[in-house]
């Protein structure tokens, strides 16, 4: 009987040891699986926040671009009017508004550059630069108006045609940005 008790104790010790090791392996596997799952969830949440942040940046830039486009139409209408003190005052007020709206657009474009990806950032920068011809033609007309007021004679400079010619490249730059933003957004979802 002594041998059988010894064998029973040995088998019990072996079974208990196996149970402890199995428990430890299971626990370690569960911990590792939980860690992996937590990392996947965190990565997924970061990707979702990035997608939403980019989408908001794209929408803000598009919205601000439309505001500037509406302002350009207002400027164009005033540029077509006959020279007068009222026209000059309206142009100066529109100039101040254009500077303020451009600052907002520039901020929006910088946010897109920050958020990325590079294709959307490049398109945002091109869109921002597409306002340059408007500004140059408008500033020249404003300066001509100021000169005409000082000399009481109207200059022959007629920049409103240059101003109006800038519409197509401006809206094309917006279309290019929308395409780049859509492609980037679809890549983010894929």
Number of domains: 1
CATH superfamily: Talin, central domain
CATH topology: A middle domain of Talin 1
CATH first level: Mainly Alpha
Distinct helical segment count:
6
Major sheet size, sense and barrel closure: none
Which class of secondary structure composition applies to the elements? Answer: mainly alpha
Q: How would you describe this structure to a colleague?
A:
It is a single chain. The protein is an all-alpha fold. The chain has a single domain (50-189), classed as A middle domain of Talin 1 (Up-down Bundle). Helices cover 90% and strands 0% of the residues. It is built from 6 helices and no strands. Helix 2 (85-115) runs antiparallel to helix 3 and helix 2 (85-115) packs antiparallel against helix 4. The longest helix is centred in the first third of the chain and has 79 residues, at 2-80. The radius of gyration is 34 Å and the shape is rod-shaped. The protein starts with a helix and ends with a helix. The relative contact order is 0.11. The model is unreliable at 152-157 (pLDDT under 50).
List its traits.
single chain, 190 residues, mainly alpha, A middle domain of Talin 1, 6 helices, 90% helix
């Amino acid at each position: 009987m002594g041998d059988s008790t010894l064998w029973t104790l040995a088998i019990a010790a072996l079974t208990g040891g196996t149970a402890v090791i199995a428990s430890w392996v299971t626990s370690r596997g569960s911990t590792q699986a939980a860690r992996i799952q937590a990392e996947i969830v965190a990565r997924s949440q970061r990707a979702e926040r990035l997608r939403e942040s980019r989408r908001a940046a794209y929408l803000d830039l598009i919205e601000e671009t439309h505001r500037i486009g509406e302002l350009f139409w207002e400027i164009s209408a005033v540029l077509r009017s006959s020279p007068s003190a009222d026209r000059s005052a309206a142009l100066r007020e529109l100039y101040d508004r254009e500077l303020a709206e451009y600052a907002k657009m520039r901020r929006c474009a910088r946010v897109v550059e920050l958020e990325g990806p590079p294709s959307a950032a490049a398109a945002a920068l091109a869109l921002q630069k597409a306002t340059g011809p408007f500004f140059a033609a408008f500033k020249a007309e404003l300066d001509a108006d100021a000169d005409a007021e000082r000399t009481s004679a109207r200059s022959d400079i007629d920049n409103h045609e240059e101003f109006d010619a800038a519409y197509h490249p401006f809206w094309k730059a917006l279309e290019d940005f929308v395409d780049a933003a859509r492609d980037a957004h679809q890549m983010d979802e894929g």
